[in-house]
Amino acid sequence: MKAVLNYNRNVFINCPFDPGYEEIFQAILFTVHKCGFILRCAKEFEDSGSIRIKNIIGLINESKLSIHDLSRVTVETTASLPRFNMPLELGIFIGCNEFGTKRHKEKEYLIIESEQFRFKEFISDLSGQDIKSHHNNPEEAIKCIRNWLTKYTSETIPSPGIIVKEYKDFLIVLPELCIESNWLVNELTFDELSSLVTNWLTFE
Fold first, then answer.
1. Is 87 in contact with 73 (CB distance < 8 Å)?
2. Where residue 118 falls among pLDDT bands split at 50, 70, 90?
3. Residue 196 has pLDDT above 70, yes or no
4. Exposed, middle or buried, 186 (CB in 10 Å: 0-12/13-18/19+)?
5. Which candidate among 26, 58, 60, 128 keeps its CA 20 to 30 Å from the CA of 40?
6. Distance from C-alpha of 131 to C-alpha of 112, rounded to nearest angstrom
């Protein structure tokens, strides 16, 4: 995969993939690519039949940067236990950062939440971390991601408000872009959406 060759530009995202999070996920994907980076996530392996945790470890290994959204660490309405996939993946990344090779010790990560201090209710050990909140708002998520990524590039990145406007423009033309490729917006795979975003950013 070509993205592997861009270790310093790869940004692994650890987040939920349920429909309720889709708007935030798409906003983050757009922002990461607008800032000149490459978003990597477990969705790359959809329907591959491979072991999920091994895929995630591979992505962490291939990515210098990582975003971890803990906003969906909640108790499911149909179950009595919370969802802990996101804290698990965060723990793997921190372990890699602490105990890995010199390259892995240079890894950097961002933790985001729906509310800044909500994490204290379920992972108090994260106290002292500079956790950012997006309030379940895609525009706030764009601001969080954009401001964080500016620290890892020498290129000039547009202000959050400008990226928000461009993202809204992209959403307007997305159905037309899908028609040109004979795709449906609600059936786009991760790779297809990434391709549409990068192509649009290249020629817009």
1. yes
2. low
3. yes
4. exposed
5. 128
6. 6
Sheet strands side by side (includes 132-133): 38-40, 10-14, 65-69, 108-113, 132-133
Architecture in CATH for domain 2-203: 3-Layer(aba) Sandwich (3.40)
**C-alpha torsion sign, points 5, 159, 137, 170:** negative
Amino acid identity, residue 47?
D
In this predicted structure, the answer to whether residue 152 has a pLDDT above a threshold of 90 is yes
* Average pLDDT of every residue of the chain: 88
In this predicted model, what pLDDT tens digit does every residue of 6-42 receive, in sequence order?
Answer: 899 999 999 988 888 999 999 999 999 999 999 999 9
Rounded to an integer, the average pLDDT of 172-181 is: 97
CB 194 within 8 A of CB 29: yes
Q: How is the chain split into domains, by residue range?
A: 2-203
How far apart, in whole angstroms, are the C-alpha atoms of residue 163 and residue 34? Answer: 8
Say how far apart CA 68 and CA 14 lie, in whole Å.
Answer: 5
Beta bridge mates, 14: 68
Locate 144 and state its tokens.
Answer: 């969080």
**Residue 18: half-sphere exposure toward Cβ, Cα within 13 Å:** 11
pLDDT of 120: 60
DSSP state string for 90-111: HHHHHHHHHHS-HHHHT-EEEE
